[in-house]
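Q: Hi! First time doing this. I have a protein sequence and I read that you can turn it into a structure. Is that right? Here it is:
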Amino acid sequence: MDSLGAIGAGAAIALENLFPPLPSEVILPLAGFAASQGKFSLLSALLWTTVGSVVGALALYWVGALLGRDRTVAIAARLPLVKTADIEKTENWFARHGTKAVFFGRMIPIFRSMISIPAGIERMPLPVFLGLTTLGSLLWNSVFVLLGYALGSRWHEVTDVVGLYSKAVLGVVALAVVVFVVARIRKAGRGSHRARN
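A: Yes, that's right. Below is the predicted 3D structure, encoded as structure tokens:
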């Protein structure tokens, strides 16, 4: 941001989409703080961070599109505890809720990046994907950029609060994975027990 200004903030957000460990919850308030210091305008901060979000999401969309359904099914078939039926259920779910998932997914840590891949695999129409991604990203980015702008030198307080939200999301995801694995192992155990009988 110091060397490239608002474009640098956008580049950082594009990278955050590709490498989720780079937290947007730090980059965005910092961009707001930089705008409050006059390094670039608030409008530039909002514009370029949203452009960065869309560019990063679009890159992952094309990863999903290049991967395609057949390769996804082939990869899933090799994974332990995952069945082809799981992919079919996911496809059916995405067909019903894909637009909501892309829009609201832009506001959930981890899913912000990952939701673009199934959108690409399912070949969601590109104008729809771009529209939903732009709107969702603009809302998410605006909240954090404006908070950083308002808080000024105390911009880091935003990251302290949002860190709890991110940890809660990670906790729910970890719990869901554990429940899935335990349920699948139990089901496999009952199946082998019936086969022996």
